[in-house]
Design a protein that fits this description.
By secondary structure, the chain is an alpha+beta fold. The protein has 2 domains: 100 residues, Phosphorylase Kinase, domain 1 (2-Layer Sandwich); 208 residues, Alpha-Beta Complex (Aminoglycoside 3'-phosphotransferase, Chain: A, domain 2), CATH 3.90.1200.10. Helix content is 50%, strand content 14%. A 5-stranded antiparallel β-sheet has the order 1-2-3-5-4, with helices on both faces. Strands 6-7 form a two-stranded antiparallel sheet. Helix 7 runs antiparallel to helix 8 and helix 11 packs antiparallel against helix 12. The termini are far apart.
Amino acid sequence: MNPLKREVEVEKYIRARCAELGLNRGDLRVEPILNWGGFVNRSFRISDAHRSYHLKLAIEPECRVAIRRWRDLAETLERFHAPRIIEWIAIEELEAEGPLTAWIDARSPSQMTESLAASLIPVIAELHAEKALSSRLGPATTFGESYRETYAQRFASDLEFVRDNRPAFVSEARLEVMRSEALRMDDISRSNVAFHVTTSFVIHGDLWLNNILVTDVGEWSILDWDDLRIGDPMIDFAMLLGPSGADLRPLKLMDVLEPWMQDHASRERLAFYGRASLLDWVIDSLADYLDAETLPEHASVIRREKERVHHEAFDLYRRLYLA
């Protein structure tokens, strides 16, 4: 659907419910928010002169199934700094649904700091061990399957998309390097016994810096719980301490994480996920570059940034893992 038409439909829906939501129709504003992490879901700031909300809408069927998981577990997830869901919005005209939450006057950090990591990691570790969530998210899986669900499947689909629509700045040789690395990582997840272990741990599944909001006084929230699932806790830690737009290096601030490392196998998997997280920035930036056409008003800015990230991430990956 045309982005402008989608915005009109969202405003039409909210305007009809202004009284219920405590909003003044006279100065209602519905503003789309650019999500740099991907363009499958859509986010909006909804406000009047006195209050603001954040609305996230899932449109694709599988995304709608995933986001309902957040809704169904919302009360428990608030303990782990998830925003409180005020209202569940379902817009039939868009075949879209998602949570309405209070607007948080905060921003995502450009890079992880030692103090923020020290505050976040104990809460994330508590989430991993939360049995009430585990029993509702089951069944158990293996660490290898967790890797493949998080990374390998995305690598395969993104690389197919890029191959069919290859940008001029990506050579066939470079595309083959990315494909070979994705296959190599998949093979390791299947052959290495460290990944054969069964797990019932709960993971956020998308714990990169853009899903962390920090206020000016240091309070923080964790966003986007629709990838919540059973998986490998090391995936969360590798994302949290991994690449960001300002610093693409994997596995930073490892001293802060050390007390939470249980054994050699955990360290081995963490190193593997650190590599996977950087490869994700190499590959996914190209998929986002191509997907930018779905947001024509932002396309040129998105493409410029995604091309930069791809080149820098590829060069760093080559130095760290292919030298």
